[in-house]
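Exercise: predict the structure of this protein bound to cobalt (II) ion.
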Amino acid sequence: MVEFFPDVPVIRYEGAQTKNQLAFRHYNPDEVVEGQKLRDLLRFSICYWHTFRGTGSDPFGAATLQRPWDDGSNSLENAVKRVGVAFEFFTKLGAPFYCFHDRDVSPEGSTLKESHRLLDAVAKALKEHQTKTGVKLLWGTANLFSHPRYLHGAATSCNADVFAYAAAQVKKAIEVTHELGGENYVFWGGREGYMNLYNTNMQRELDRLARFMHMAADHATAIGFKGQFLFEPKPKEPTKHQYDFDAAACLNFLRAYDLTDKVKLNIETNHATLAGHTMMHELEYARIQGALGSIDANTGDLLLGWDTDQFPTDIYLTTQCMLVILEQKGIAPGGVNFDAKVRRESFEPIDLFHAHIGGMDAFARGTKIAAAIRKDGALSDFVKKRYRSYDEGIGKKIEEGTVSFADLEKYMLEKGNSAPNESGRQELLENIVNQYL
Ligand code: XUL
Ligand code: CO
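Solution:
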């Protein structure tokens, strides 16, 4: 068998003291945290688009990434060869899952029919490699934003034929995801938004987007696809205003169009920060509504205002993510998908390994830190105590909904004034979290 990464062994857990940079220091897939092996709790996934289709080009410069296996062509042969590279990478890294867009794995043909045929041919290769390696598909999706036909959007395009084309593409992508045993299917509204309201009928666009999702869910039922649908919030880029702005906007959309029992959320760090939120805010908002389905793990740059999709290495960030994920006992059938790319200056294939090892270790470490914080009740005891006025007396009645404004007025007229407030102790709690790092 040809090896594409001949200098890289299978990456193993060697512990924090190792000097080997091609080893995990914290991610031991068999280590049990809160009753689950890290492998099953984190469900790491590699994204095909950045890792195998990224070139390092940016608006100011050409491709930089060295990918010696790739001839740069759009041929089916090249696409099938990449599948072999990808599965060697997944296997050496010990990643149990991967994700793709239809047009990452296979080329766009000159007709829809040809594109379908090309996707089938690549899917066959994907399936063979899945069977051989045991690597599974976390989710599939369709690229409804790169081709010029989607310049006004896909499901929200003003052009009904474009809606129809997108529907045909998603129908096929769901079928291929189903064929490959995909556990989820993602909608990220690449150009589902607007650049200017002067030319936009927002009502019709939102209605069409909802219609599209209902049709996708109906098709899943028709073919027996039981995977979870996920909507991925992002506030802007490429459009000025994306309809999937943040978790709250997505949930409002899903609720307004009766889709909450069909679709959950795939939350991405850099999208959260572009929306002016922390990742922890987005995760917690989704979790409390029973909608936290999966995460796209990455990070932005504090000084850059766009979607830089960097690998997550910040232990505070991963700890905060895992505090929320452990609270809901894991994220299955979702996972931790590295929707992240190496910098264009990190152009050697080996950089792909360093990047993913770092991200996996950061999440493993964050998991253990979060579990220790939770075990000691270091934050939860404080939070519980902070809200104790609602556990009894008037607070309990407010929560139960058994008192009216008039009752509360009577209560307060009798009592005279509210009980004194207590300190929020933010600085103390920040110090306590630091003690676990
Ligand atoms: C774009 C993005 C996408 C989705 C899948 O910002 O995150 O790659 O994850 O379409
Ligand atoms: Co993403």
